[in-house]
Amino acid sequence: MRHNDHKARRLLERVPPATLHATIIGLIALAIYLRTLAPGLTWAHNSADGGELAAAAQTLGIPHPPGYPTYVLLAHLFTYLPVGEVATRTNLLSALCAALTVTLMTWSVARVTRQWVAAVGAGLTLTVSPLLWSQATVTEVHTLNTLTASLLLALAVLAETHDSSRPLAAAMGLVWGLGLGNHLVIALCAPLVVLVLRRDVRAALFAIGGLALGLAVYAYLPLRAATDPPVNWGDPATLQRFWWVVSGTPYRQFLFSLPAELVPLRLLSWTGLLAHQFLWVGLAAVVLGAVALWKKGRPLFWATGATSILCSVFAIGYNTTDSLLYLLPAIICLIWWLGIGLAWLASELAHRAPLAAGVVTGLSL
Asked: Which of 111, 127, 149, 195 is exposed most, by the fewest CB atoms within 10 A?
């Protein structure tokens, strides 16, 4: 028994601290989401599409445009779980994607700051942020979207602390392509992709190859349409109908169609949403993180800042009642700033308060 305990300790010692802390926080997040998981179908939290998505996942069908092939294929695997009804199983996919998002957030902060308190603070803040939490408990595509955004952010962070850019570029392209196979709004994370390519133009070829491989998931649509599944939006068996589905033709009317007089109200709502996600203390940490990144890590500042702005502009201009959900990739970037801000604050306390120096040093990775 002691021998087994010794082996377990040795295995844990080999795990990088950032990975260990991220895994622990991710498991805590998963436990919270499972405890609050919807038992089946619900219209709560803007999840009115849940029944359609669950049915498409069960039958390998094609939900409303753009078809969400990445989501459908992943959710189909979850329909085989021997628990609850089909919607319960697809709810579990949302919970897992959200927990993995938290894990990657914690790791990304730890990778840059080398302080586990800052990383854990960012991870826990994301865990209980109301918008992500709401989507982690229902059948929807948005937590897979946040997982994609957090993966792109983690790869961008890795690129800034790693010499090999071409494999990272290929991975970035693949993740981006599969993400676009889930939701087209992930295209607004392009600044994170560009960050990886900026140091090596030839890496773009690797990124394009990865992107093409990821986008190949859309071949699912005409292949399944040919079998006439029970859920078959747009019947994308021909090139014309395929483009109608993939390009989201029915929803183009909502793009930047918000009346001008309502824009100030949307901006005010976005500000209130931020305060609701982070509280005002958290927003102060976000600002500190932005300042710290501006001083020391401008490429990451510009990439995350541009992604946040693009997602915000899109969500504010998208004229639907659930457009706030498109802000989730922006929230991912801003909570990463929050983690950087917490680390900067801890570092400043260590320098300015000698009594705190030993504590902060002990909390460093």
From this structure: 111
